[in-house]
Amino acid sequence: MALLETHEIEVFYGDFQAVFGIDVSVEEGETVAIIGANGAGKSSFLNALAGITPSKPDAITLDGKPVGGTPAYEMVKKGIALVPEGRKLYPSLTVEENLLIGADGKTVDRGWNLDEIYRLFPILKERAKQMSTTLSGGQQQQVSIGRALMANPKVLLCDEISLGLAPTIVKDVYAAVKEIQARGTTVLLVEQDLSAALGAADRVYCFMEGRVTLTGRPDELTKDQIQHAYFGMSDA
Ligand SMILES: Nc1ncnc2c1ncn2[C@@H]1O[C@H](COP(=O)(O)OP(=O)(O)OP(=O)(O)O)[C@@H](O)[C@H]1O
What we know:
Elements: E1 4-6, E2 9-13, E3 16-22, E4 25-26, E5 31-35, H1 42-49, E6 60-62, E7 65-66, H2 72-78, E8 80-83, H3 95-102, H4 114-120, H5 122-126, H6 137-149, E9 155-159, H7 167-182, E10 186-190, H8 194-200, E11 203-208, E12 211-216, H9 223-231
Parallel strand pairs: 5-10, 5-11, 8-9, 9-10
Antiparallel strand pairs: 1-4, 1-6, 2-3, 6-7, 11-12
Helix pairs in contact: 3-6
Bound molecules: adenosine-5'-triphosphate.
């Protein structure tokens, strides 16, 4: 049994359907990436897992138990924590205060605390008392990841953590994802930066127009397969 599974999950905004019956499974300790173009439904899917958009109870199982439709503040206590698109830090709080807020979602100790976050992201220790808004984009992304880890999740959800960052900074952020996985945390990420996603993930799912068009291990997939799955076209 996989740690996290979706079963024919659907996401609606009023009458508009963004996700059409998607099955995804994530094994404990895996890093899985969802790739796809703008509007493919990646964030809608991730937000359903985080309890931000509604879903049916059986549509999401964690450790085999239905958790779909659980509100976001409860979902994090069940073990699913989100690094949201755009970081969404609290601008009036310091770096450390932002991190400490993440600990409100902690119900089990899986080894993540302030010391461990500062070990993963040493610059944040130096900047601990600064307002989060004074940090660079990459450092703010570190705070957002650290805040989610402070909840000690079973599964860390990351939404477009490369967004707006220079390529060298993206590399650093993804090196941290590898480290997070190495420390035993399961990661499910949504990413438009293909090389970042393929470099970090054990398995990928490609979404197009709210459906899965391709799945596999990065080393098994060809460029043409990915292009076809991404845009519905190929070189041929
Ligand atoms: N709050 C909302 N209300 C109505 N429609 C929405 C809402 N959020 C997303 N959508 C629509 O749902 C579809 C999927 O959007 P979603 O943001 O999930 O895609 P995405 O793959 O994450 O793309 P992006 O990378 O641009 O965020 C799009 O057609 C989008 O316009």
